[in-house]
């Protein structure tokens, strides 16, 4: 897998966080759109990223998540990681229900980043 920059890696992390409960709530979609607007003030084609995520089997999510967490870690400073974690938390809470899988992936991210 090719290394991603911080913004693309963040997109992958958020997409997996939004999918692990097997339900993509519209509130989560709004949060992801907010992330995209903040990270990509210019138009960007994410078709390849969407395809890569869509092709993943559920058993591959964790490894993919860990890979992109590492990419984000390598390209970010501590404040950016803390800000991202706060945003990720708002994403998993957006539909007012936090599943055990969402919580597990979120806490795993914190562990991977030693936060």
Task: Chart the SSEs and their pairings.
Layout: H1 6-19, H2 26-39, H3 47-54, H4 61-74, H5 78-93, H6 100-112
Helix pairs in contact: 1-2, 1-4, 1-5, 2-5, 5-6
Question: What does the model show?
Answer:
- Helix content is 69%, strand content 0%.
- The protein has 115 residues and is mainly alpha-helical.
- It has one domain.
- Helix 1 runs antiparallel to helix 4, helix 1 packs parallel to helix 5 and helix 2 runs antiparallel to helix 5.
- The model has no long low-confidence stretch (mean pLDDT 94).
Count of helical segments?
6
Proportion in β-strands: under 5%
- What is the structural class? mainly alpha
The residue ranges in which pLDDT falls below 50 over 5 or more consecutive positions are none
Task: Provide mean pLDDT, rounded.
Answer: 94
Give the C-alpha Rg.
13 Å
Shape: globular
**Count of spatially separate domains:** 1
Order of helices and strands: HHHHHH
Number of strands: 0
Overview features:
mainly alpha; 0% strand; 115 residues; globular
Brief overview, please?
This protein is an all-alpha fold and 115 residues long.
